Every structure is written in C-alpha cells, then in structure tokens.
Automatic annotation (TrEMBL):
One of its GO terms (biological process) is rRNA methylation. This is 16S rRNA (Guanine(966)-N(2))-methyltransferase RsmD. The keyword tRNA-binding does not apply. PANTHER family: METHYLTRANSFERASE. Pfam families: Cons_hypoth95. It comes from Ferroacidibacillus organovorans. Keywords: Methyltransferase, Transferase. One of its GO terms (molecular function) is nucleic acid binding. NCBIfam families: 16S rRNA (guanine(966)-N(2))-methyltransferase RsmD (TIGR00095). It comes from the Bacteria. PROSITE patterns: N6_MTASE (PS00092).
Length: 197
C-alpha cells in the first residue's frame, strides 16, 4: 500500500496482519479522492473502521488539517503508519468500537468535514451507519461522507444525505454523499431562517 498523491506521495504503509481487514485498492482510492477533492484546504476528517489508516492518511497528504482514526483492532498499525509518515501531530487514534467513538466525539463537540466509512461489508446489512452518524450531531453542514460497501449491497439512503455519486469497481460499490440537516425534511418542518454561524 502507498500514498497516491499530495505531500506524502509515494510513501508506503504497513498493512495489518491477518484477514480481518480489507485494504481499499489503489484504483478505488484514486477514484474516491478524485470525486471528493482531489485536494483539501484544511478541514477535519473521520476515518471510521480505519484498518491501516490509509484513507485518512491519504486525506492528510492531500490537505486535511486533522483526521480522527477509529478502529478496535489496528490502532498500533495506524500509529506506526502515522509515525513513519511524520503526520502523527495531525491525527487522533481511538482504539474503540465505532459507537463509543461517535459518543465521544459528540461529547467533545467535534465537528467533521469528511467521513471515510469503510466497515466490514457485512455490517452494512446489520447497522444503519448513516443514521448513526447524523444522530451523533458531529457532521458539519455540507460534510462529505464516502461509503464503501460490497457491490451487491442496496445503496443506503438516509434523511439528511444527498447522494452525489455512485460507482462500481469490481466487487466494491462506492457512494459519495453530502450531508444537509434539512435534506429530505418536509418543507413545513424547515425553519424560515437558519442560525448564523
């Protein structure tokens, strides 16, 4: 595995041992970032189910100011990769279940601009991950959520998310969403004016 573009371009990453993780293929990663960037001017990312941390590290390399990495099993690998690429100062690593991580981020009032959502494919059939993200109230308005799943998975839909793109790559389906708190809400339920930021 390697970083494809940005300040860390060409640097190699360590992959977790065993079959518990499924690294995102380089061509899928390149397609993903070409759809949401390909570069960023700051912002905070969340790499949920981070595995090696490759997606979040690619985001840092391409300009994200900070990324929060969440994984129950691979936090040491993520920390090693961050140290190897000299970007540990731009990262927080949570060695915990994603639900606990979302609760913690909510308590700490963290706001996220980009989410990389690449869980074990089977989890999509058991959990409403988009709903859990919005319920945690951690997404900035217009945040981008990139979701990776098996190609046979019905595309997730959830109130508050606008589907921007959907693409298939071999056995992988890639979905890009924009978060908007009022998307899909009946017009009579939308306030006349939004609070100033």
């Amino acid at each position: 595995m390697r970083v494809i573009a940005g300040t860390k371009r060409g640097r190699t990453l360590i992959a977790p041992k065993g079959n518990e993780t499924r690294p995102t293929l380089d061509r899928v990663k390149e397609a993903l970032f070409s759809r949401i960037g390909p570069y960023f001017s700051g912002g905070v990312g969340l790499d949920l189910f981070a595995g090696s941390g490759a997606l979040g590290i690619e985001g840092i390399s391409r300009g994200l100011e900070k990324v929060i990495f969440v994984d129950t099993q691979t936090s040491n690998v993520i920390r090693d990769n961050l140290a190897r690429l000299d970007c540990a100062a731009q990262a927080d690593v949570f060695a915990m279940d994603y639900r606990r991580a979302l609760n913690r981020l909510q308590r700490e009032r963290v706001k996220i601009d980009v989410v990389f959502l690449d869980p074990p494919y089977a989890l999509w059939h058991r959990e409403s991950l988009l709903d859990q993200l919005s319920a945690a109230s951690i997404l900035n308005e217009q945040a981008t959520v990139v979701a990776e799943m098996g190609r046979d998975k019905e595309t997730p839909v959830s109130q508050g998310y606008e589907m921007l793109r959907e693409a298939l790559y071999s056995e992988t389906k890639l979905c890009v969403y924009r978060y908007c708190a009022t998307a899909g809400v009946p017009l009579e339920d939308v306030p006349d004016s939004l609070p100033e930021r």
